[in-house]
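Running this now, will post back.
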Amino acid sequence: MPEMLTPEELAELVHTTPGQLAQLRYRGGGPRYMKFGRKVLYRREDVEAYLEENSYARTDQPVTA
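Update: finished.
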């Protein structure tokens, strides 16, 4: 079973708030997540992939969508 993170755990890990993560989910951004009823969970591997895809070396590097 993969390691799962709650929104609170992920927010602490990436220095943001659970509310910001909720906004990202609402807008269709951020790392992939799973829902079990009303409970939201993030797989650590999905978070790591999202962070890697959104890592940049320069400020003028184009953002690919």
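The longest helix spans residues 18-27. More later if anyone needs it.
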